[in-house]
Automatic annotation (TrEMBL):
Compartment(s) of residence: Membrane
Source organism of the structure: Urocynchramus pylzowi
Alphabetically ordered keywords of this record: Membrane, Transmembrane, Transmembrane helix
SUPFAM superfamilies in alphabetical order: MFS general substrate transporter (SSF103473)
GO cellular component: membrane
BP GO annotations: acetyl-CoA transmembrane transport
The keyword Transmembrane belongs to this UniProt entry's keyword annotation: yes
InterPro entries associated with the record: AcetylCoA_trans_1-like, AmpG_permease/AT-1, MFS_trans_sf
Name of this chain's protein: ACATN protein
Membrane topology: Multi-pass membrane protein
MF terms (GO), sorted A to Z: acetyl-CoA transmembrane transporter activity
Length: 238
């Protein structure tokens, strides 16, 4: 039903645009950034060779390592501790209006000459929230009862997620504002695409590594089988 509704909205709005939006009659010749895919990659290579761009790319590729585990694993561990998936999905609903409002509010602070200041200020708070998420996972089995989890536990989870969204969007909007600010207007699309792609990659590879390391770093104990650590998948199954 959800997909059907928004699919219908998409079709109606795009059809209205097709019929009601009139194109400009005057054709303004636009300067093409590049002539083809080879030129584009040649241009990207020349951009990334610049010392300042190379240093910046190395920084944003590693800047999210500190909270990758908390971001990627917390939800999975809460489910493992018994929090129902459907309840976690419902907790995401109050985050939607927050996600809409936050960029509007944060953009006021990133519109100045130093947009990355917001990025720097948000980072320690986001790191601290990683400890808060670890506490939520540790706390889950302590408060669980036969009927599930108490309301106050969910309230703390929602509050923690809300604070996390504030720090996440502060860093996200700041880095986008900086990328837009430093991109050369003559090749703005290519320049910004490169920086934004590196920024996205800087968030994705640490999360992938964190998920891959969950099993090797998890301490396990086999009930009723002393001396066995259940270190492998086969041992755990046995």
């Amino acid at each position: 039903d959800f997909l059907f509704f928004w699919g219908a909205v998409f079709l109606v709005t795009t059809t209205l645009v097709a019929f009601l939006k009139k194109e400009n009659q005057e054709v303004i010749p636009a300067k093409e950034e590049t002539k083809g895919i080879t030129d584009t990659y040649r241009l990207l290579f020349s951009i990334i060779k610049m010392p300042a761009v190379l240093t910046f790319c190395l920084l944003i590729l590693t800047s999210k390592v500190g909270f990758s585990a908390a971001d990627a694993v917390t939800g999975l561990k809460l489910v493992e501790e018994g929090v129902p998936k459907e309840h976690l999905a419902l907790l995401a609903v109050p985050m939607v209006p927050l996600q809409i409002i936050l960029p509007l509010v944060i953009s006021k602070y990133t519109a100045g000459p130093q947009p990355l200041n917001t990025f720097y200020k948000a980072m320690p708070y986001r790191l601290l929230l990683g400890l808060e998420f670890a506490f939520l996972v540790w706390w889950a089995p302590k408060v669980k009862h036969e009927g599930g989890f108490p309301v106050y536990y969910y309230a703390v989870v929602v509050l923690s997620y809300a604070l996390h969204q504030i720090t996440l969007y502060s860093m996200y909007v700041a880095i986008m504002a900086f990328n837009a600010k430093v991109s050369d207007p003559l090749i703005g699309g290519t320049y910004m695409t490169l920086l934004n792609t590196v920024s996205n990659l800087g968030g994705n590879w640490p999360s992938t590594v964190a998920l891959w390391l969950v099993d090797p770093l998890t301490v396990k104990e086999c009930a009723g089988a002393p001396g066995h650590t259940c270190a492998t998948a086969a041992a755990t199954e046995v």
